[in-house]
Structures are given as structure tokens and as C-alpha cells.
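Weekly structure sync, notes
Attendees: PL, DS, HV (note-taker this week)

Item 1: Tyrosine--tRNA ligase 1, cytoplasmic
DS walked through the input record. Source organism listed as Camellia lanceoleosa. Sequence as pasted into the shared doc:
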Amino acid sequence: MDIARKNKLPRITRCVQIMACSEQDELTAAQIFYPCMQCTDIFFLKADICQLGMDQWKVNVLVREYCDDIKRKNKPIILSHHMLPGLRQGQEKMSKSDPSSSIFMEDEEAEVNLKIKVAYCPPMVVEGNQCLEYLKYIIFPWFHEFKVECGPDNGGEKDDHGFSYSNTPGNGGLLFVHFIIIIMTSTFVVLSARDHFKNDPAAKELLKRGYKFTR
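Item 1 (cont.): predicted structure, written out as C-alpha cells:
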């Protein structure tokens, strides 16, 4: 309530993109109050770092502005990142409400492989191809290159040291199946951090508390 009192309506409506809404949309009272609740969550969880997608950026800024209003010196740090799309066609971002189209840190290798295997990745299509987002924002930043062994009919060994649309299916580069194999194997390596949450008692308890708040 205090966050709502200290902010004008236009300031709050600028944050409604967290619900995939626009400031110009006809909003319900609940949608207007939602950013205030999101802002409150950060204080309730005593979060020092707000590591969230770009869709949450305006709410994170609201948190820091509220710290100024209440004269709080230790403001949460904003660490915003690119939002990966869901694995289904047309999904702009992953969502825990559709577990089959999202990859979670605690997923087992078989789960990751199954989800990626049925991901939207049509041959010879670049626009809206979800798998290319994973190559660009996960595989290349982590490995800086990829290499796959292809049969002689498919051009033999293919090697790339930087993401380029010249090497995507739409431009005659790697085939659809090669992308799926690369992403399946590489994504699970990146998820190796999940072992920390499985084997460390303190981290395991932290993960359990996170589920309690988000589900």
C-alpha cells in the first residue's frame, strides 16, 4: 500500500509490461496494482540482486526509486537479461505455467532433450525460429563455437566460431537436425550448475524455498 501511495498512476502503468500489457490497454484495478505487489515481493524476499528478464526492468527501477522515497541506502542491484522464448511456436518468453515449453535449472537430461526435440525449429526458417535464440544467447556465449560431424551428403564436418545467420537453416547452412543435436547436448552442459542445488544442503533448501514462493 505504501508503494501505491508514493507513486502516481502513470508511473505504475508504465510497469504493466510484466503482464504483457501496454500502457494504452484498458487495465483492470488488479492489473494496475500488480506492479506494486511485484515490487513488494523483492523487499519481502530481502533480495540483494534482482536477476530477472527485461520485461521486469521497469518494476526493478520502481523498487530502487521506492528506496529513495523511504531513504533506504542499500538498494537492490538490477541484473537484467535477454528473455528467451518458449519452445512452442509464437511464445515470446518461457513461462513456468507451461512446463513442457520451458527449461528449468533442475530438469534432468532426458527432460531437456525431450523438450528441445519437440521445439519449434522448422527447416529453412529463420524468422521466429526459437532454437536460433538458444544458439545465439546460450550456446555461443558459453562455448564460443560449435562443431558437428555430418555425413558426406550433408557437407561433412561443419565448424563455426561465431554466431552468424549465414550458418542458419534459412541460408543453406546447418540442417534442422544438427541444430537440435547441438542445443540438446550443449544446453545440458550449461545446466550443470543444477548439480550445486542437488548436492549442497544449503542450496537445496534455498531451491525449496524458491518453489514455495513461486508456486
